[in-house]
Design a protein that fits this description.
heterodimer, A: about 450 residues, alpha/beta, Aspartate Aminotransferase, domain 1, Aspartate Aminotransferase, domain 2, 7-stranded mixed β-sheet, 4-stranded antiparallel β-sheet, B: about 475 residues, 13 strands, globular
Chain lengths: ~450, ~475
Amino acid sequence: MLARIGVASIDELFDEIPAGLRSDRPLQLPPAMNEAAVSRLMLERSLGDTPLLCFAGGGAYEHHVPATVWELAGRGEFYTAYTPYQAEASQGTMQVIYEYQSMMCQLLAMEVSNASLYDGATALAEAILMAVRANRRSRSRRVLLPRNIHPVYRQVARTLVTAQELELVEVPFDPATGLLDPQTVAAMAGEECAAVVIPQPDYFGGIEPVDELVRAVAPSGALVVGLVNPLAMALLRPPGQWGGAEGVDIACGEAQSLGLPLSSGGPYLGFLCCRERHVRQMPGRLVGRTVDDEGQPAFALTLQAREQHIRRSRATSNICTNQGLMMTAATIHMALMGGAGLRRAAAASHRATVELVEALTSLPGVEPLFDRLFFHETVLRLPLPPARVLEALEGHGILGGIDLSRAYPELGDALLVCATELRTGEDIESYRCALGRVLEQAA
Amino acid sequence: MLIFNHSRPGRRTAAHLAPEVPIDLPAGLLRDGDPPLPQVSELQVVRHYTRLSQKNFSIDTHFYPLGSCTMKYNPKVCGQLALLPGFQTRHPERPARFSQGFLACLCELQGMLAEITGMKEVALSPMAGAQGELAGMLMFRAYHHARDDRERREVLVPDAAHGTNPASAVMAGFQVREIPTDRHGDVDLDALRRAVGPHTAGIMLTNPSTLGVFERHIAEINGIVHAAGGLSYYDGANLNAILGRVRPGEMGFDVMHLNLHKTFATPHGGGGPGAGPVAAGERLAPFLPVPMVGRGESGYDWLVERHRPQSIGRLTTWAGNAAVLLRAYVYLRILGAEGLGRVADHAVLNANYLLAALKERGFTPAFPDRRATHEFLITLKPELEQTGVNARDFAKRLLDYGFHAPTTYFPLLVPECFLIEPTETESREELDAFAEAMHLIRREAQHNPEKLHTAPHKLPVRRVDEVRAAREPDLAWRPR
């Protein structure tokens, strides 16, 4: 090969690198291992930590994923393909994207979905930026962002949007219910703002009065961004129908609950849907159905003039690589489960959490913090600091929830708990017994 | 046929269903009927998506020399070990003391990437290259603001850069000024000197550039930008070409990102996921995004805002695309330093070999006096003038020959171009076969150009009407 190139050595191929730039020493890395040795290392590391029975949610949920989902999504033809830039050689990926877009629109009652964003937090940030661009009636750069949205989502949104001189204004929640108050939202939206974000459910698991909230925003002319758990939307009214036929302008969030493993927080699946009239402000890829030269159905990337590889500094976003494989898995998951399957998983998760709350609040000093309905997550007040309780529960093999005292000091000793359809009556009983012992020992 | 067309009312697979439970929520909150998703059997799902997969070109099935995308083979073991049950079922809120194995992998990965890049510290959380770029630009901004130097609002970007560079700079609140390329494919230094000033926040440089050549003026570029008070960013998208040869930190760059999904063993997944860790030198390290991983007396732990008060903050809900990070970790443990050097050696060898093979067959390099790096550019302008067949026609006909097309019409500086990146994992025979196919296609262009204008002929679809897709957008199936 070298002879054909006309050089004497591989080193010669690097001769354009100026001598002063070259590294003067070899890399100091751990020595190479063979596949058997690295497999053993990783197995030991993955097994080293005790398994814990999971009652934590907070944006990442342990649901059943049918074996078929990853069996299919993991096929090399999906897994090792690039972004579908050559349409004719990528019809498989493109049809999956089109089906994904269609399913998300059905699930959320929206008109357009993009082909994915990174995760729920960045989808929220992109939705906020998009809403400010899309609101042509208002020049405001203020966006209302409720305090009962995931605290890290709010931090990420702040990191990503403040450089573009947007102002994120925190909307308080009602301390008695943890929910947003439509009158407060109406008053704040009335003071000139571009968009309002409404969660469903909120970070505390509460079911928000979304119809009243959307109607409260309407007179202000602000756009509405719905931040939703898509699995919950198989049971609850979807964002495209909030407040009557009109619904939200943009729906976004995290779709990990549609067939993705917990996997330490990623890769997950950010989604973003909108009304047709806003599509040209949408970030990320879109696939459209069209025809080929012979008039047969075919799929193509479309409306690409929004994207960075065409529009460069004037693109709607810098996103290029997205979460394609997770989108593929979510599509297969939705096809396997169907509408009824998703609704039943959502309903069973809700039921399990109702039972969990009944079981845990039977213990002295443990009570619901908020008086309102919830989906599959809610907040309990504990008689002890949650950090202490969680640590003790871990000794019993239980991941007992999420300590809210750092993110929400005003809530006191508050614990966010979650049960999905995978938590059985026995699991819940184990939690109740363990918590009972922990509280007794502390007393 | 869409999956929706297979749907029949009531069809489902019982094994996937949770038990039916009574609902105690008021009807007004509930959805009016189940979402109209497909109602199909498991077997229908398996056949439908298996058949769709078979309509794709992929690394596992085809040579895929897509320039600047590094479509190389990734060892299957990397994916398998990243998905071990202990990793896959780990809830992201699981406390650090119960996550020592996972955190050990991340902490060691940070260290290995710092060593490879010659930087001081690494943050792993950015979820793709573009997010890594954005992190770098937010770090530019945070650094200048920390020095109360707020007039630095302009980022310089060479005209050959990926579109993500200017888009990321704008997302971070900067204005972008393009710097032209000289006729040898290097940054035009005179233009750069004229562009810098007290308004300069810094420069974003891709090396090797998207023209497929090593930027020879790096020392001068960094000197000019730093002397003007700016910072320099290294776009590591093309890291495959330089592993073990040069280290961006040693070359004077302040911050960079790496595309783990290109260089370090995560397949592209039909669009993603990726991971775009950011590495920073002395000046910018305090501004790296959180969370990071540290090691203390009680073991590994997360480093968050209170440990890193100057951080630009969070870009991700948790630690980024964790399973992608684990793949990269496994890959680096398998290769070690020597294996990593071989990656660059063979990537550059393969590219120069394929360039030589195409030159022998009369194709025109865009920069004939330059070495190829891990990739190279040719221009099909002579073929267009001679036969009327353009780069798009060539690309589509390559698909008929069983090769994925190279990157076409990018970068925009070279007309009718192919950006070709064979990667280190292809055999010599595969490279020869590709060169031969190019030769045969050119012969077809001379004798039967119509066959190329209407290519492809052997794929699941003929040439796709992209104009119609944009003019009459049909973006979702709807029930009748």
